[in-house]
Structure formats: C-alpha cells, structure tokens
Amino acid sequence: MNNSYLQSHTLLIALCAGLGCLLSGCMLGPDYKQPNTVLPSDWHSVSASPSANSDANSEAAWWRNFHDPVLEQLIEKAAIENLDLKVAETRISQARAQRASAQAALLPSGDLMAGANRQANQIGFPGGSSSPLSQIIKQPFNIFKTGFDASWELDLFGGHRREAEAAGADLEASMLTRDDLLISLRAEVARTYLEIRQFQTQVQLAEHILAADQKTSDIMQQRFAVGDIAGLEVSRATSQLEQDGGQTAYYGNLQAQAEYSLDLLLGAQPGAAQALLKQAAAIPRSGNELIPAAPATVIAQRPDIRIAERRLAAATAQQGAAIAKFFPDISLTGFIGLFNTNAANFINAGSKSWSMGANVLWPILSYGSLAANLDAADAKQQEALNSYQKAILGALSDVERSLTAYQTQELSLQALERAVAAEQDSCNIAQERYAAGVTSYLEALDAERKLLALQNQLASAKALNAQNLVAVYKSLGGGWNVTVASASQEKLP
C-alpha cells in the first residue's frame, strides 16, 4: 500500500466527514487535550519527602527569606523598570491584537463605498454593421454607485475558529513568557546582589591582609637592619606584600563589574547600583528551611512548562485549520444603496438598489499544496509535543541539579565555618601568647593572616551557598503567583 493510496484514502474520508459537517457547522481536526505525563512522587536528591502542605505559592516571594531590605528593594525595582520585561509586555500586546484579528474573521465585514465610472461597450457586430443600435450601444455612459457593501464567510468547518483558538493559546504563551522572564530576572538580581556583597567583604578582608603584610614587612626590615635575619626573608615579605596588594584591586574590579550588570537588570544608567550599595553589608543568608514542593506541583507552576503546553495547544489547533482548508469556503454577500447612470437623478428614490447572493469557493485542484500544508501542521504538532516532553524532563533535571548543588555546598560551608572557628581560636591563642611575651609579634601576625585568608574563602562559600539556594527557588518555579497569573485569568472565547 503506497503513500499516494493512503493520501487519497485519507482525503476521501476527510471529504465525507466535511460533507457531513456542512449543516451542523462543526470544527474539523483534533480537540486539544493536555498530555498525561508520569512524574516521580518525590525528588531523587532529597532524602525527606516534600511537605504535604507545600503548594504552588509557598515560595512566591522567596527573596524575603533572606531578610534583606536592600535585596527586596532591588527586586521590586527590577520588576518595574527592567527593559526585557517591557519588551515582553509589548509582545503580549502584539499577541492580543493577533487574537482579536483571528476572532474578527468569524464575524461579518462591511464597507461604506462610493464610486463613479465612465465606460463604453465596444461590441463588434457581424460584417462591421454600423446600425443605429450599435451606435447607441457604443455610446459612453456614466455609473454612479454608493451604499453599504457587506460579506460574511461562513465558518462551517471551523477553520477560522481553530485559528482563533491557536491565537488564544499563543497569547497565553506570550503572557507566560513574561512570567518566566520575571522569575529569571528576580533570580539574576539576587545572584548579582550576592556577588556584590561577597566582593565587598573580600575587599575589606584583602585590606586587612594587606595591613598585616605591611606590619610583617616592617618587622622584617627592622630585623634585617640589626642583622637578625638575611635579606631573603625581607624579599619574601615584600613579595607577599605586593602579591596581596593586588587582591584589593582584583576584588574591587569584580565588584564594579557586578554593579554594572545590576544596573542593566534594573533598567538604570551605569552607577545607579553603586549609589544604592555604597554602604558595605554582610552576605545575607536565608534562615528558612528549604522544603521543596512535590514534582507534580513544580511542573504545574513552572511557566516554561506551561509555555510549552500552550504552544502544543496552538499547534494542535493549527492542524484543524489546515484540515478545514480542504473544504469549501461559503460566503454571503449583500449590497444596499443607490445606483444610477445620471448624476442629477442619483439622489432620487428611483436610484435605490440592493443585491444579495452567495459564493462557494472549493479548491479542488489545490489538494497537493493543501496536503503539504497539513503534513507541515502535523509535523509542527509533533515538534511541539516533543518540546513539551523535553521541557518537563529539563525541569526535573534542573531541580535535581540545583538541589544537589545546594545540599553539597551547604555541607562544604558548614565544614569551612568550623575551620574558621578553629582558626579563630588559634589566632586568639597566638595573640594571648604574644601579650604574655611567650611568642613574637610576627607569629601573632602570621596567625591573623591565616585567619583572614580562611575568612576570604568563607565569604566565597557563603555567597555560593546563597546563590545555589536562589537557583533552587528558580528551578522550583518560585517568584510568581500562579493563582493570579495574568495568562490564566484572561478569558478566551
């Protein structure tokens, strides 16, 4: 059984179905149903099961868990001023206009028209006759016409309704795209803010290390001057001083770069973030226990999954629109107005004119191109289905990776905090021993320098831990409220 036979058989079935729908005005093509997807009951990377009380809105404002007023202010400002969000909002307006255009195709259209023509009928007669009748017929004459001209294409097979359905799904996808962008924006603002606080802390620590190096260098110079040590020790101290001196500029540059990145996220000119964050502060840390929602809840609330689902709905509706093109387009036409060949009598009652009729257009010789269009629509629907399934797998993987990174970094951070606490004890003991005259000041400075270096590592670990938590909240779909999402609230006909 070859492809041509299958296509002919399919076309015959479609034609029979279309003729059966002629009087009922049905919609051809498959009705969309959201695919059933088997999801895991809990997360692979979480030992404890998700809380039964976890819901889609439990972490809608996750940034407040850091209890940092400046972070909250920045996120609120970005949600209002970010230019990417504004671009997304203009695309929503475009999609809404396209949906309105698709819906308008379901209604009658009419025009108020007026026209004036002058013409002659150049009719040829046998033998080149020049009878009086032929001369009269060939005389130029005027036509004056004005009135209301209306037409209505009957959507008996649902092609226009399917297109309106697809446009509605595209509108919802555009609105969800804006919500997805908002989630990413808030996460990126928080991540950049945490970087800035990290670099501020490291600049301060670098300055303290540099001060300790300077004291060590001064002591070495004094000891060398009295012949207590060789010049090699002085050179080593000087080298360490110069090396650590570059760290202040290094972290300062990283801080400036992060501030400029934050300016762009805020939709502000360069320097705005620096003014807001001029006062250094500690790296914020969430005090709330992380209890991720169940996989089914995450999949239901992530906008990117819902975008893929709406794209699939639109592609399914386009299948019906492609099928409907195989069948006749039936339209009604009408005219009411004035019609006359004499301008002087044009306004008289005798010039009243009307007409009505119906047109049928059936593309019986275009089935090759229409079949190709239908094949393309089927392929796009399959592409959208695969993209939807891939989006779900990607979301599950995103959550697992972010949870694993956060939990692993949390253990590393706790170990580093214990190490810093132990080094702090060593530093305190060294200072007490120096105060008692047991050890030299140089040994106390060396202990302080080791502590500062370890604290620098701790600052990086704290920022990374907080950034990993932000990534978890982002992967869980936090940062927007599903129950008030604009895409789900707008009613579509």
Characterise this structure.
Mean pLDDT is 83; it is low at 1-20, 51-58 and 483-489. This protein is an alpha+beta fold and 493 residues long. It has one domain (28-107, 161-327, 369-489): Outer membrane efflux proteins (OEP), CATH 1.20.1600.10. It has a four-stranded antiparallel sheet with strand order 1-2-3-4, with no helix packed on it. It has helices at 3-21, 69-81, 83-104, 132-137, 159-225, 231-265, 272-276, 295-301, 303-324, 367-435, 441-475, 486-489, and strands at residues 109-119, 141-154, 329-340, 352-361. The longest helix has 69 residues, at 367-435. The chain is built from twelve helices and four strands.
Q: Which parts are unreliable, with pLDDT below 50 for 5 consecutive residues or more? A: 1-20, 51-58, 483-489
The N- and C-terminal alpha carbons lie at a distance of 43 Å
Number of strands: 4
Q: What share of the residues does DSSP label as strand, in percent?
A: 5-15%
Strand order of the largest sheet: 1-2-3-4
Reported by name, the CATH topology is Outer membrane efflux proteins (OEP)
Query: Could you describe the largest sheet, including whether it forms a barrel?
Result: 4 strands, antiparallel
Instruction: Please tell me the overall pLDDT.
Output: 83
Number of domains: 1
Structural class: alpha+beta
What CATH first level would be assigned? Mainly Alpha
Quickly count the helices.
12
Assembly status:
single chain
Shape assignment: elongated
Quickly give the CATH architecture: Up-down Bundle
Question: Which range best describes the helical content: under 10%, 10-25%, 25-40%, 40-55%, 55-70% or over 70%?
Answer: 55-70%
* CATH-defined superfamily: Outer membrane efflux proteins (OEP)
